[in-house]
Amino acid sequence: MDRCWYHGNITRSKAEDLLSKVGKDGSFLVRASESISSAYALCVLFRNCVYTYRILPNKENKLIVQASEGVPVKYFDNLDELIEFYKKENMGLVWHLKYPVQREEEEAADEPEED
C-alpha cells in the first residue's frame, strides 16, 4: 500500500504547517513521534486546528491510538490498517481521515517496516 501520508521524522511544527497549507477538514499525515522512539503521531486538520493523536505499540506490537477518554481501544496490526479504519466517520477522532497530505520531494521519509 502506498504510504504517501507517512512523513517520517518531521517536527510537529512542520506537520502543522503542511496541514494548514492544505486547509481542508480531514487532511492528515503520520509522522514519527518526537518524544517516544517506537511511536507515531497521527495529525488531523479540523476547523483550522491540528489535532495530534499518539499511536503506540503495545507489548504484542499491535498499534493503538491514544484517544479521548471513553473511546474504546482498538488494536491494529499495522499503520495501513489503522488509517483505513479511521477513514470511516465517527470512529473516535475529531474528524475522519479524508485527504492524505503527501510528502514533499525533499523529505527523506523512512517508511516503517511492513508486517
UniProtKB/TrEMBL annotation:
<dbReference type="GO" id="GO:0002376">
    <property type="term" value="P:immune system process"/>
</dbReference>
<keyword id="KW-0391">Immunity</keyword>
<dbReference type="GO" id="GO:0009968">
    <property type="term" value="P:negative regulation of signal transduction"/>
</dbReference>
<dbReference type="Pfam" id="PF00017">
    <property type="entry name" value="SH2"/>
</dbReference>
<protein>
    <submittedName>
        <fullName>Inositol polyphosphate-5-phosphatase D</fullName>
    </submittedName>
</protein>
<dbReference type="GO" id="GO:0045579">
    <property type="term" value="P:positive regulation of B cell differentiation"/>
</dbReference>
<dbReference type="GO" id="GO:0050776">
    <property type="term" value="P:regulation of immune response"/>
</dbReference>
<feature type="domain" description="SH2">
    <location>
        <begin position="5"/>
        <end position="101"/>
    </location>
</feature>
<dbReference type="GO" id="GO:0045779">
    <property type="term" value="P:negative regulation of bone resorption"/>
</dbReference>
<dbReference type="InterPro" id="IPR000980">
    <property type="entry name" value="SH2"/>
</dbReference>
<dbReference type="GO" id="GO:0005829">
    <property type="term" value="C:cytosol"/>
</dbReference>
<dbReference type="InterPro" id="IPR036860">
    <property type="entry name" value="SH2_dom_sf"/>
</dbReference>
<dbReference type="GO" id="GO:0045659">
    <property type="term" value="P:negative regulation of neutrophil differentiation"/>
</dbReference>
<keyword id="KW-0727">SH2 domain</keyword>
